[in-house]
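Chapter summary example: a protein plus heme C.
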Amino acid sequence: MGKAFGRVTAAVIAFALVAPVAVFAQDVIKNRKDDMQILRKSVGAVKAVVDGKDGPEAAAAPAQAVADVGKRLLADFPPGSDQGDTKAAALIWSDRAGFEAAVANFNTAAGALLVASNAKNLDGIKSAFDGVGRTCGACHDKYRGK
Ligand code: HEC
């Protein structure tokens, strides 16, 4: 066993240890982007109700999807997932309390949208839709980088 072999072995071991973490982070980043795209599409479907293009009964399914993503939002941003193809701002992890508050505000708004949507209450859907939109924007302003 020469020195070079030992060095190669060490490199292989180091790669074996590091690679799964990198793959994990890429999967996490992809999953959260998918969740954000679910939000974008679902909010678009609710907007069609708000605009009168669809009846109030069409809001329940997308409102449920929005609420479901809300429950995954904190888990979508685990430590270490700030590296890679992501616009997630470092502040998400350095200001975790603020980020958790942004998620909580979102979940409150999403809950109100779900209640109004299940009740097919168009006025309620309209005001809750604005509330959800504000919480998307508030989080993006602070925690999404350029
Ligand atoms: C608690 C914070 C938070 C909330 C709430 C939030 N987002 Fe995001 N969003 C982010 C962050 C951070 C990113 C960047 C993610 C990345 O690049 O890894 C993002 C990215 C996105 C993207 C781009 C995804 C991609 O494919 O790159 C879309 C679209 C999006 N958000 C839509 C929404 C909509 C619509 C809402 C509200 C219904 C919403 N988001 C609510 C934090 C949030």
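Key point: The mean pLDDT is 91.
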